[in-house]
Design brief:
The complex is a heterodimer of chains A (116) and B (113). With 116 residues, chain A is an all-beta fold. Chain A is built from no helices and 11 strands. Chain B is globular. The chains are: A mainly beta (116), B mainly beta (113).
Chain lengths: 116, 113
C-alpha cells in the first residue's frame, strides 16, 4: 500500500517533446511537493502546493507546469524538454507545516527523466 | 531563511567502526530537523527527526542524532557501521509555515569490509 506513488518510474524522451509525471498520495496530507535531484544528488525544491493551491514556485522555468486536481494528486507537465531537464524528479507530501506538528516529508520512488 | 550544510560529500568507514556524518543548520526560527537516507535508485526514507522534546534523537537502523543549539548542529552517528548502511544521507530543515524542506547536499557513506 504505497504512500506516495509516482508514474512513470523511468521516462526517456527526445528534446522538444512534452511529457507528464503523475503523483498521488494516500496519506491524507495537505501539502505536496516536487523536487528535482540532479546528477550530483543535490535535491532542490521546485514547487509546493497546499490544498491544491500553489504556495512556492522556486524560479522554475515556465515550461514546467504543476497541476493539482485535488489535494491527493500533484502532476507535473513539462513542455519543450531540454537536455538539462534530465534528472530524477521526486514527489513528496507532508502535513500542513502550519499545523505546528514536526512533520516530515514522505517521498515517492522518483521518476528518472532522460532527455536525448 | 533556512539552510543546511553537510560537511564532507564522501565519508568512508570500516565495517564495525563509528559512523559520524556532520550537519550544521541555519534558521531564524526554531527549526525542525531531519535525517533521510537514500539507497541507490530509491526514494528518500526518514531516519529520524528532531521534535524539540529531546536533544538526543534515536532513529531507525541504530542511528541517532544530537541537536546542539549552541553549535547549530545536528550530527548523525551510529556506533558500529554495517555494510548495509552504505547509502546517501541527507540532512534537512523545515519550519512551521515554511512550506518547504531544505536539504543539504548529501553525504555518501562508504563501508569497507
Amino acid at each position: 500500500d504505497t504512500a506516495v506513488s509516482q508514474t512513470p518510474k523511468y521516462l526517456v524522451t527526445q528534446m522538444g517533446n512534452d511529457k507528464s509525471i503523475k503523483c498521488e498520495q494516500n496519506l491524507g496530507h495537505d501539502t505536496m511537493y516536487w523536487y528535482k535531484q540532479d546528477s550530483k544528488k543535490f535535491l532542490k525544491i521546485m514547487f509546493s502546493y497546499n490544498n491544491k493551491e500553489l504556495i512556492i514556485n522556486e524560479t522554475v522555468p515556465n515550461r514546467f507546469s504543476p497541476k493539482s486536481p485535488d489535494k491527493a494528486h500533484l502532476n507535473l507537465h513539462i513542455n519543450s524538454l531540454e537536455l538539462g531537464d534530465s534528472a530524477v524528479y521526486f514527489c513528496a507530501s507532508s502535513q500542513d507545516l502550519r499545523s505546528g506538528f514536526n512533520t516530515e516529508a514522505f517521498f515517492g520512488q522518483g521518476t528518472r527523466l532522460t532527455v536525448v | 531563511a533556512q539552510s543546511v550544510t553537510q560537511l564532507g560529500s564522501h565519508v568512508s568507514v570500516s565495517e564495525g567502526a563509528l559512523v559520524l556524518l556532520r550537519c550544521n543548520y541555519s534558521s531564524s526560527v526554531p527549526p525542525y530537523l531531519f535525517w533521510y537516507v537514500q539507497y541507490p535508485n530509491q526514494g528518500l526514507q526518514l531516519l529520524l527527526k528532531y521534535t524539540s522534546a529531546a536533544t538526543l534523537v534515536k532513529g531507525i537502523n541504530g542511528f541517532e542524532a544530537e541537536f546542539k543549539k549552541s553549535e547549530t548542529s545536528f550530527h548523525l552517528t551510529k556506533p558500529s557501521a554495517h555494510m548495509s548502511d552504505a547509502a546517501e544521507y541527507f540532512c534537512a530543515v523545515s519550519t512551521t509555515g515554511g512550506f518547504k524542506t531544505i536539504f543539504g547536499a548529501g553525504t555518501r557513506l562508504f563501508v569497507k569490509a
